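Weekly modeling sync, notes
Attendees: AB, CL, MP (scribe)

Item 1: holo prediction request
CL wants a bound-state model with BV8 before deciding which constructs to order. AB pointed out that an apo prediction alone won't tell us much about the pocket. Agreed to run with the ligand included and paste results into these notes for async review.

Input as submitted:
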Amino acid sequence: MATPSIDKHALDSFHAHLSQSKRVLALLGAGLSASSGLPTFRGAGGLWRSHDSISLATPEAFAADPSLVWHFYNYRRHMALQAQPNPAHYALAELARKLPGFQCLSQNVDGLSQRAEHPPDQLQLLHGTLFELKCASRRCDYHETNFTDPVVPALAIPTGGVDPTSNEARREAAAAQDKGQDLDISDVKVPIPSISTKDLPQCPKCNAHLLRPGVVWFGESLPASVLKNVDDFIDADAGIDLIIVIGTSAKVYPAAGYIDEAREKGARVCVVNMDTNDAPASGWAEGDWLFQGDAATVVPELLK
Ligand SMILES: CC(C)NC(=O)[C@H](Cc1c[nH]c2ccccc12)NC(=O)[C@H](CCCC/N=C(/NCCC(=O)O)S[C@H]1O[C@H](COP(=O)(O)OP(=O)(O)OC[C@H]2O[C@@H](n3cnc4c(N)ncnc43)[C@H](O)[C@@H]2O)[C@@H](O)[C@H]1O)NC(=O)OCc1ccccc1
Ligand SMILES: [Zn+2]
């Protein structure tokens, strides 16, 4: 039975087009993983503690305060490891197995599409992943896959053991401990220790630099292999039949630019978003679809 909120007529016309489509793109954003319990980038006003998440996701922030940036990424690794892929992640993986001409362009670094066993050659990780670590030096090519949580003991998320300075933090620590919960360090009221560089992840190859998360920071270029895979798919003569834009505010480039590039290659655009105001940058065109709702319920209906 179709999810009540979905417009039947729109759903039927979408299904008709999808069934005719040979080459399909999907652009994935944080909204895809929202119902897996992961905060979106702009959720909570885009703040982590008192910091603008975007400003923490920069080489400059890491150079200035690697302890703070590692607390940020260790926290997001911890949250992502605690989370589970939702039905939308699985539906996208299923479509990839059925449709060889389907490519998912993911802005998400949470590893949930991979854990939904999305075929790896049909998943382009535009902004990397939280679970790759690499040397912070451009002159060292060391990198490793790493799911250790905490990534180093010093970054253990405080569980009541911290020496909270404020009585309130002490009360919260005790309450969290009673419930056996972690303290939510995305809350600025929860004190986090500044970790000395020697206790942060070290590069075992050059032994001269820290390891950093294998994500693309603002101001850094996307992985060349991924850019090539995407451009080869988009530039193919066969054109593109459809692009499905799921749970993204489409404000970060070059990722957001792929919507218009696909449109120029003949694609019809289908947007799935909890909030109808987040239209593609280039606005709506005749024939587009907008399905408002939770990606975890809407996407499985669309890809049925
Ligand atoms: C802010 C923006 C204007 N800035 C940029 O785009 C910059 C600069 C720039 C480049 N070109 C431009 C052109 C114009 C303007 C600016 C630029 N781009 C870059 O710096 C890029 C790199 C960008 C990548 C940055 N890294 C990320 N992530 C990894 C790190 C990390 O994660 O920590 S970006 C990160 O933020 C973005 C967050 O966006 P969303 O995922 O969409 O999340 P958001 O919270 O915004 O929205 C969620 C949506 O879901 C909806 N939703 C919520 N719940 C649900 C639900 N349940 N169901 C459905 N929908 C839901 C909401 O309504 C909402 O619409 C994602 O891309 C995410 O990956 N690099 C580069 O250009 O390099 C150059 C270069 C070239 C050669 C050589 C050297 C340099
Ligand atoms: Zn190194």
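Recorded for review: The two ends are 11 Å apart (CA to CA).
Action items: CL to compare against the apo run; MP to circulate these notes.
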